[in-house]
Amino acid sequence: MLKKVVEIAHDILKSHLNENSVAVDFTCGGGNDTLFLSELVKEVYSYDIQFEALEEAKKRCEGRSNVFFFHKSHAFFEEDVTSFDAGIFNLGYYPKGNHEITTDKDTVVETISKALLRLNEKGILVIVCYPGFEKGKEEAEAIMEYCENLVSQKWDVFLFKLVNRNQAPFIIGIEKH
Ligand SMILES: C[S@@+](CC[C@H](N)C(=O)[O-])C[C@H]1O[C@@H](n2cnc3c(N)ncnc32)[C@H](O)[C@@H]1O
């Protein structure tokens, strides 16, 4: 059986990381992705707008001194990160929290565009989209449209998607040459 989408996202990230890498978790949530990254890299910068999510993430990452948490929107990551090697946007809502509080397509697309300017050569941005609810579907479409227009001389953009399951989460990867 195929691995879960988040495991596949982690495999993709892992192949781009080493102990000197800087990583960004643009949507910390409960901190699964942050913890995963923190075990492989030098530093992780992790963002969430929800205090409760960050509290859970901090507990999960207890003892890891290479993680920096920020209780603010990923839109402001440039205040903290000058350059990075790998980043993840695991979109949607905090499963244990209010499902109405979800990532916003305009903010996400704008933040992706800013993140690409700070991504190091050979670096990767992984975006996990959840088209199974209306806002998530619109968000996924907006991100796809943005990514399809990235110039191929500079970026490789790939899609990992179950083509026989419309509503299933899927992964967009953006690799800098
Ligand atoms: C699907 S969860 C992330 C899962 C998480 N990475 C994990 O490993 O458990 C999405 C998270 O994005 C957060 N979020 C929504 N808008 C955000 C924003 N503008 N900046 C940062 N985080 C945001 C939500 O609060 C939610 O916790």
Quick description:
With 177 residues, this protein is α/β, with parallel strands linked by helices. The chain has helices at residues 5-14, 32-38, 51-60, 105-118, 134-148; strands at 22-25, 43-47, 67-70, 84-90, 119-129, 155-160, 170-176. It is 32% helix and 25% strand.
Can you tell me about this structure?
The structure is a single chain. With 177 residues, the chain is an alpha/beta fold. The protein has a single domain, classed as 3-Layer(aba) Sandwich (Rossmann fold), CATH 3.40.50.150. It has helices at 5-14, 32-38, 51-60, 105-118, 134-148; strands at residues 22-25, 43-47, 67-70, 84-90, 119-129, 155-160, 170-176. Strands 3-2-1-4-5-7-6 form a 7-stranded mixed beta sheet, with helices on both faces. β2 (43-47), α3 (51-60) and β3 (67-70) form a beta-alpha-beta unit. α4 runs parallel beside α5. It is globular. The N and C termini lie far apart (32 Å). The model has no long low-confidence stretch (mean pLDDT 97). Bound molecules: S-adenosylmethionine. S-adenosylmethionine (SAM) binds next to α2.
